[in-house]
């Protein structure tokens, strides 16, 4: 075998696969409405782009500190203090090429062969694959829209073994948009408070929340929890900077320095130019964040009420992120549409609307619809979905 066992055991990201298929169809002239995308459709704000241009012109184009520039890590520390009530020194912060790399580095640094990592389904597609690459074992706690796609403390207690190393939380969540309140986190994390189980808290969608929902960081619960938590965040979703590849992690110094050691032998520092831009994003005007949030809220309200009005669909109204995760299992039959993949294919063929099947996120019976596209596309897209569903 040429390819290593651990890489043979993982698959190409299904969301990336879906996006690539849509691009291919669009290139071939098909008028597809793409509701698969996991990135804001807005441009990166001009002040951030200007900071990058300045960095380039000032020849800020060399290697930086492996963990990120001290200026950026200080700005991140300030952000974490002001937004999340978390006090970290720059040595407890690492900047990487996207939140994804931070998560990967954290899992590589924490998980030993055979260690168990708890995630709830529906999950972000990369978590289980990253655990596989670390030769750990993913333990899935299924959730449904009935309990708001949240893990019940009792369900967490039931899966803990002596091999449990890590609990991954994603709030607000991709793909469901669900988010835990402070009280819910308190109850859930209370189950593992007196254990050595660590927490990876993925907060990449923290700026995309609705209806005055107050985001709360797991690490801010208490010092004990903070001492076992790695908080993940980044610029992709908040500042529309997906292509810049800039994310960061904050946590106990021994874990952050282990992640730094790992990074020093894999990618090294993230792009110097992106770091200069990221510094401006955190320290410059923040109006664009609120403008984007409001627009996402408008789209969520529209799309949610449209989907909920379709006979047979039930859809959780999420607190954050830019996805809806409707339950479409009422349309399954023993003939043409047996599962979420069949339904996604039906929507693509019949309606020319691209969505991601729920099974990609470990949850059969659902599809993920991104509303990170124009209102015009959403209006047209939902109309086409209604028509295609009527034909089943
Ligand atoms: C839950 C979640 N975590 C992490 C990431 C990765 O973000 P980044 O672009 O910063 O690598 C994504 C991107 O879709 C995500 O949805």
Report what the structure shows.
The protein has helices spanning 5-8, 14-27, 46-57, 70-84, 99-110, 126-133, 153-159, 182-190, 223-226, 253-265, 272-283, 287-308, 340-351, 375-390, and strands at residues 33-34, 93-96, 116-121, 137-142, 164-170, 198-202, 229-234, 247-250, 323-324, 353-354, 356-357, 367-370. The strands form 3 sheets. It has a 7-stranded mixed beta sheet with strand order 2-8-7-6-5-3-4, with helices on both faces. A 3-stranded antiparallel beta sheet has the order 9-12-11. The model has no long low-confidence stretch (mean pLDDT 96). The chain folds into 2 domains: 5-43 and 288-390, Aspartate Aminotransferase, domain 1 (Alpha-Beta Complex); 46-283, Aspartate Aminotransferase, domain 2 (3-Layer(aba) Sandwich). 41% of the residues lie in helices and 13% in strands. α4 (70-84) runs parallel beside α11 (272-283) and α5 packs parallel to α6 (126-133). It is an alpha/beta fold. It is built from 14 helices and 12 strands. Residues 38, 98-100, 124, 170, 174, 202, 204, 234, 236, 242, 247 line the site of pyridoxal-5'-phosphate.
């Amino acid at each position: 075998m040429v390819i290593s066992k651990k890489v043979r055991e993982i698959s190409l990201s299904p969301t990336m696969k879906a996006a690539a298929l849509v691009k291919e169809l669009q290139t071939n002239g098909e008028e597809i409405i793409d509701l698969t995308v996991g990135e804001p459709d807005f441009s990166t704000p001009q002040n951030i782009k200007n900071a990058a241009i300045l960095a380039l012109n000032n020849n800020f184009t060399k290697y930086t500190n492996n963990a990120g520039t001290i200026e950026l890590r200080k700005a991140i520390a300030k952000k974490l203090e002001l937004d999340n009530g978390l006090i970290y020194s720059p040595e407890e912060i690492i900047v990487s090429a996207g939140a994804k790399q931070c998560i990967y580095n954290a899992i590589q640094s924490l998980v030993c062969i055979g260690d168990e990592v708890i995630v709830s389904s529906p999950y972000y597609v990369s978590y289980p694959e990253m655990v596989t690459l670390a030769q750990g074992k993913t333990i899935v706690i299924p959730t449904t829209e009935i309990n708001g796609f949240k893990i019940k403390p009792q369900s967490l207690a039931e899966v803990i073994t002596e091999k449990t190393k890590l609990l991954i939380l994603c709030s607000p969540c991709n793909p469901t948009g669900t988010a835990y309140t402070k009280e819910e986190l308190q109850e859930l994390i209370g189950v593992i408070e007196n254990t050595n189980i660590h927490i990876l808290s993925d907060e990449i969608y923290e700026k995309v929340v609705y209806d005055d929902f107050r985001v709360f960081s797991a690490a801010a619960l208490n010092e004990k929890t903070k001492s076992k938590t790695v908080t993940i965040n980044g610029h992709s979703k908040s500042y529309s900077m997906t292509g810049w590849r800039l994310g960061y992690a904050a946590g106990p110094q021994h874990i952050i320095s282990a992640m730094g050691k790992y990074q020093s032998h894999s990618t090294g520092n993230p792009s110097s130019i992106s770091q200069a831009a990221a510094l401006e994003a955190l320290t410059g005007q923040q109006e664009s964040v609120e403008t984007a949030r409001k627009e996402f809220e408008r789209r969520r309200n529209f799309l949610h009420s449209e989907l909920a009005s379709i006979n047979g669909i039930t859809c959780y109204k999420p607190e954050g992120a830019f996805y809806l995760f409707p339950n479409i299992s009422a349309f399954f039959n023993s003939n043409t549409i047996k599962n979420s993949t069949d339904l996604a294919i039906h929507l693509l063929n019949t309606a020319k609307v691209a969505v991601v099947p729920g099974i990609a996120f470990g949850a059969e019976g659902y599809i993920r619809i991104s509303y990170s596209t124009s209102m015009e596309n959403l209006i047209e897209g939902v109309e086409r979905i209604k028509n295609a569903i009527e034909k089943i």
